[in-house]
């Protein structure tokens, strides 16, 4: 009988450990995704406060993402991720305790989210850079698709669990579960033994100069049209589209869809679509994957108008599932392209610029979504978001280097539209 275990999990035991630990953590993340907005509302917060809290978790990305990228190219990436998980375990545990004891205020939650976001800023570049040290180059797309599958499945399991937890134990109980999943993830990270840095791409020395290493990472970005244009499109998605999901979606859910339960249904629909997208990314290989990714991003950028369409909850859920397919396809392809075409020794720095220009700028959209919707109305704001985001993603499809980027790196390290060796591109 053919094994149901994907080959990449059988053949790459270190990745299997990471996969299990992150699978547990992702469920907690998805619980938190639903619970945090309602935690703010439960202590008397407004729509603007929901946006403020989400922004507080992302502002540290502006301050620490580049530091995290340099550190992750200097030091063991899995150790950075371990420390980050332990910090987030503590933060979510404290938030849960404050909510369960009834003493939480919006300002407490904002301060805790700043600490949480700081830990995130170090975790994300390290996680992207860790993958080539756990998985062979020919298995990166499969591994990223499986990671995406877990994240998408978490959008189904997590919100369903969150809806029950919020109803039974309040947002504090839901955050306590999230805290425990960070502890579980840390336990698996502690057992990882990644391979060494790939031959030909010497790692940064601990005594290297920070600004020099940062400039070397930026050289990797600006020398590839497909990288910087992709980052620009992703920034628009994070700044314009995602505030509709993080801020205005829960507000509409509270007013029209039955609160946390209704929002959980919509989020689960997106998760189901994301699972389908990850399966497609795992099974389907194309010669020029970034062209497909750009088209998928245009579809995913329609989320704001769908949420504000005024359609029934069932119709919105189905349409969100379609956007889930597209968003998963895009991010699996994008992450695999970076890991394939960027020298491994500079990968965390490049990904830190990615996070800085996307998640780091996202607080601007989150902070403005509430006040703008208070002035213009929720639905007009959602329609305006779509009119900005969809053309931006279509513009990405017009970039020749995006349409022509091959699925596999050429023999010369670096790849993309400006083929360079690691040394030529400024990797220390």
TrEMBL record:
A matching Pfam family? MFS_3
The domain of life is: Bacteria
The record gives the membrane topology as: Multi-pass membrane protein
Q: List UniProt keywords, sorted A-Z.
A: Cell membrane, Membrane, Transmembrane, Transmembrane helix, Transport
A GO cellular component term found in this entry reads: plasma membrane
Cite the CDD domains for this sequence: MFS_MefA_like
Q: By its UniProt entry, which SUPFAM superfamilies does this protein fall under?
A: MFS general substrate transporter
| Keyword presence, NAD | no
Which residue ranges run through the membrane?
50-73, 110-136, 148-168, 225-248, 260-282, 289-307, 313-333, 353-370, 382-402
Q: Where in the cell is it found?
A: Cell membrane
Entry keyword Flavoprotein: no
Per the annotation, which location comes first and is thus the protein's main one? Answer: membrane
Q: What is this protein called?
A: MFS transporter
């Amino acid at each position: 009988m053919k094994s149901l275990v994907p080959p990449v999990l059988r053949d790459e035991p270190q990745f299997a450990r990471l996969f299990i630990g992150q699978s547990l953590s992702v469920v907690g993340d998805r619980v938190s995704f639903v619970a945090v907005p309602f935690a703010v509302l439960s202590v008397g917060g407004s729509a603007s406060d929901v946006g403020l809290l989400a922004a507080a978790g992302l502002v540290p990305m502006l301050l620490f993402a580049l530091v995290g990228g340099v550190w992750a190219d200097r030091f063991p990436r899995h150790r950075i991720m371990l420390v980050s998980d332990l910090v987030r375990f503590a933060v979510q545990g404290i938030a849960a305790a404050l909510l369960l004891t009834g003493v939480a205020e919006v300002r407490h939650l904002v301060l805790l989210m700043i600490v949480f976001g700081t830990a995130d800023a170090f975790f994300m570049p390290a996680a992207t850079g860790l993958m080539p040290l756990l998985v062979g180059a020919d298995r990166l797309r499969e591994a990223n698709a499986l990671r995406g599958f877990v994240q998408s499945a978490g959008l189904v399991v997590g919100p369903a669990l969150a809806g029950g937890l919020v109803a039974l134990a309040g947002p504090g109980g839901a955050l306590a579960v999230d805290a425990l999943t960070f502890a579980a993830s840390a336990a698996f990270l502690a057992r990882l033994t990644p391979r060494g840095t790939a031959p030909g791409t010497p790692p940064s020395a601990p005594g290297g100069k920070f600004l020099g290493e940062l400039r070397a990472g930026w050289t990797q970005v600006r020398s590839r049209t497909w990288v910087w244009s992709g980052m620009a499109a992703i920034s628009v998605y994070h700044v314009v589209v995602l505030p509709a999901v993080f801020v205005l979606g829960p507000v509409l859910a509270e007013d029209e869809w039955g609160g946390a339960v209704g929002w959980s249904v919509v989020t689960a629909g997106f998760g189901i679509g994301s699972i389908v997208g990850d399966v497609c990314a795992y099974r389907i290989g194309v010669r020029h994957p970034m062209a497909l990714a750009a088209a998928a991003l245009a579809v995913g950028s329609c989320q704001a108008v769908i949420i504000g369409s005024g359609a029934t909850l069932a119709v919105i859920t189905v349409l969100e599932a379609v956007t889930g397919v597209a968003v998963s396809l895009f991010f699996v392809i994008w992450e695999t392209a970076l890991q394939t075409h960027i020298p491994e020794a500079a990968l965390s720095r490049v990904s830190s610029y990615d996070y800085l220009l996307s998640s780091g700028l996202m607080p601007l959209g989150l902070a403005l979504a509430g006040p703008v919707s208070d002035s213009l109305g929720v639905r007009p704001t959602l329609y305006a978001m779509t009119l900005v985001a969809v053309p931006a993603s279509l513009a990405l499809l017009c970039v020749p280097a995006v349409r022509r980027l091959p699925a596999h790196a050429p023999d010369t390290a670096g790849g993309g539209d400006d083929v360079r060796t690691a040394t030529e591109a400024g990797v220390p």
